[in-house]
Each structure stands twice: as C-alpha cells, then as structure tokens.
Amino acid sequence: MKFAAFSRAALFGIVAQAGVAQAFEQPSASILSGAEIKTRGDHSIVVPASSAQLPKNVGVAVHTNVQFVMPAAGTAAAPGIGAHPGATATGLPPYAGYPYETPASLACIHGLAPFASGCNPNVVTTVSKAGSRAIAIVDAYHYATALADLQAYSQKFGLPVPTSTTFQIVYATGTKPASNSGWELEEALDIEMAHAMAPGATLYLVEAASSSISDLLLAVDVASKLVAKAGGGEVTMSWGGSEWSGQTSYDSHFATPGVVYFASSGDTPGVSWPSTSANVVAVGGISVARDLKTLAFTRVVSWSEAGGGSSAVTPRPSYQAALAAVVGSTRGVPDVAALANPETGVWVYDSGNGGWGIVGGTSVASPLQAGVTNASKSFSASTAAELARIYAAKQSNANAFGLAASGYCGLQADYIVASTWNFCTGAGVSVSLLTQ
What is the DSSP string of 174-225? Predict the structure, then answer.
C-alpha cells in the first residue's frame, strides 16, 4: 500500500472542486435547537445539544459524541442531502467525487474486504460478510424508525437487510422511552456502523429511559445479559462525560464474562468516562486521508479534537504496566482509534433528521471498532482479556495495528502520533486479518 502526505487544506480541495454534498437536506428543527454550529467557510459542523458538556451533569448524566456537517446558508440542495452550489448529484449516495465513507470503503480499509481501487467509496462495493454472536448498542431515548432506517441503509449499500429477529429494540426499563432528536441521530449512527462491519451479528439497540448515568448503566446491564446469552460479543457505548471521584465504583457494570465493552473517548481534548474505566476498551478518533485526484485511501491521521490523555481517577491497569513512563500512575486513553472526524465522515441514514447525511464524532469510532472486533472473530472472555491481547500485540510488534498514521492531538497539540502507543491513537487502528 502506498502512502502520501496529508493536508487538511488539500482535503477540502476535494470538497470544493466536487461541490460535495455536505449534510442533511432539512435537519429537524429540534436537532438544530440549542446546537453549537461551528462555521468553516462553505460548511458548518453542527454539534447537537445532546452532545453539549454541561458542568451540572458531571457524575449525573452524560452526552452523545455525535456531530454532522451542514452547508452554508443559501446553498443549493441535491435530493435527500444538503449540497454546495454546483452539486448535480441525484438519487442516493455515494456520489462520484465525494470522499465520504460507505460500508464497502470502511470494510476495505479495515481488511474486512479485499483492498481494491484504493478503497474509493465511489468505486468499491464489496461489503463485510463477517460477524456472529451479538453486538448491543446502548443509548438513551427512543428511536421509532430504527429498524426501517437500518433496512434502508442496508439496501442502499448492499448489506444483508436486518429483520425483527436479527435487529431488536429493547427498552431497558420495559417501558418505551421518550424521543430526543440528538440521541436519535446517535442511535442511527451506532446501529449502522456496527451492522456495516459485522452484518452477521445479531444487533440489540438497548434504550435507556434518559441520559442519566443510572438509567444508562441499567441499560448496560440489560445489554450485557443479552450479549452473554447470545454466546458473547460486544457492548458499545458512544456517550460519555467528565470524570468524577466516584466513577470507579461503577466498573462492575462492565465486567460480565464473555462481553467486551467499548466506549468513545470523546470529542474534545482530554478524557471522558466511561472510556477511562479500566474495564472498557477506549476508542479514540482519526481522520481518513485520501488522494486528491483518485480518492484512494492513503493513510490515517489523528483527529485533533478527539479525547485522549491520562485519567485523573482510574489507577493505571496492569495491561498498561509497560507504559508507566508515558501515562504515569493512572490509566491512559485511548486504547485504539477509529474514524471520527466529521469532515472525513460517514454516510448515515436517519429519516427523522432529514434522511441521508454526513456524520462524525467519536460516536462513529466505538460501534465501528466493536463491529471490526466482532467481524475479526475476536471473542475474548472479558474486556480485560481483550485489552491484554491488544497491548501484548503492540508490545511484541509495533506494526500490529497496521494502518500508517500521523498527526497530533491534545489541549495544546502536545501529543504526537507515533509508532508506539500514544495519547492520540492508542495502540493504533486495527486491521482484520480475514482477507490478508
């Protein structure tokens, strides 16, 4: 595989030249209400209110880690999505010249499909055929059209179409929760990424009554029982919040035998619970770099806004003993990394929030990594066993997580990506050996 240098400005050359579709055609009013909108020239990054970090919620409630891309006001719209002037795309994604990721391009990058055509999302169509046992996605609030939307997504991209047997919504309390537009987008993203990587796995969407920590941990317990009953698998949690002194008392919720837990490292520099739990695989964020002319995959680059660093609360676990000089006496995150930058984001379908859109945040990374792990047939006896496997592999072979990476992260850009474990990408970006 040939690698080329990456330039953020050069990547946006692709966007500008192609008139690339940028987001949902008509985002729901509710998802824009209270949202933070980061204007960046001809587009904006929208951070829904559900992703806001509020001081009053520390130790009480959590937030999503989802963001999406929206065109500047007044730009033209192609059917089903927002677009820049000059965009002529019609029908459904992907579109010629558009660099955003599909199930086939992600499977190509992660070794779940043969490497071909530079993993160009507009060219490759071979999707992952792997996956077994179960993956449970834990989120808050209700997503009424989850099955229909996942079916539409699957049909568009050639994935096996889920049924009410292979995809189930479970109410953690037994009662249907209220709806929330930001969390709905989170849920759409989560189920679609997990299914894209491991379409053979049974999916459970376990819905908590609210975004409170107590409600979500109840949902984690329900999810753990479902996965264990299915013979093992993964639980993924794309949400998180600031650390607090009592967080380690909840580690037992992530300790069901046969279940491996994943959590997003967060969308701001610094660390986020539950990814800092010693019983969770913390998944950080990267960008995907592509050749300007061919859109061929070239390398991965750290996403500077992704969470990473040393916990202020969790002691350094045994699997990081060799990293004492780097992380100090407390746990370092992330453990691994996956796609997160919304500006090199993924196609998502959410009928309640405008249909097709380009979505990012480390909320992409956690279910994506859970899916890759499931598809790779890595069914460890516990999260501790999975983490021990990850760190042992990295210790014995610096190239164990084989995608070349570069970049920086941190509050003052103080962390640098290296071939060794680092605070930006952890051990690195995993590649399945199924097609090697």
Answer: SSPPPB-HHHHHHHHHHHHHHHHH-TTSEEEEEEESSSBHHHHHHHHHHHHH
Residue 434 included in any domain: no
How many H helices and E strands in the chain?
9, 20
Q: Which DSSP category does 371 fall into?
A: H
Burial of 334 from C-beta contacts in 10 A (0-12 / 13-18 / 19+): buried
pLDDT tens-digit series, residues 352-361: 998 888 999 9
Closest by CA to 241, choosing from 305, 309, 335, 307, is 307
How do residues 234-256 score in pLDDT, each as one tens digit? 999 999 999 999 999 999 999 99
The whole-angstrom separation of Cα 213 and Cα 220 is 10
In the numeric block, the tokens 């587009």 are attached to 43
Does residue 321 lie in a domain region? yes
Count up the domains in the chain and report the number: 1
What is the CB neighbour count within 10 angstroms for residue 229?
10
At 64, list the tokens: 């999503």
Whole domain around residue 130: which residue ranges?
A: 8-416
Predicted pLDDT of residue 73: 55
Return the exposure string of 86-101: e unless at least 16 CB atoms fall within 10 Å of the residue's CB, then b: ebebeebbbbebbbbb
Residue 25: which pLDDT band, with cuts at 50, 70 and 90?
Answer: low
DSSP state of 269: S
- 328, 354 Cβ separation under 8 angstroms: no
Dihedral, 321, 325, 327, 333 alpha carbons, nearest 10: -70
Q: Let me know if residue 76 belongs to a domain.
A: yes
Is residue 421 one of the residues assigned to a domain? no
- For position 311, what pLDDT does the model report? 98
Cα end-to-end distance, the chain, whole Å = 13
Q: Which amino acid is at 325?
A: A
Q: Which ranges constitute the DSSP H helices of 3-72?
A: 8-18, 29-32
Residue 262's CATH number? 3.40.50.200
**In the structure, what pLDDT confidence band is assigned to residue 85 with cuts at 50, 70 and 90?**
very low
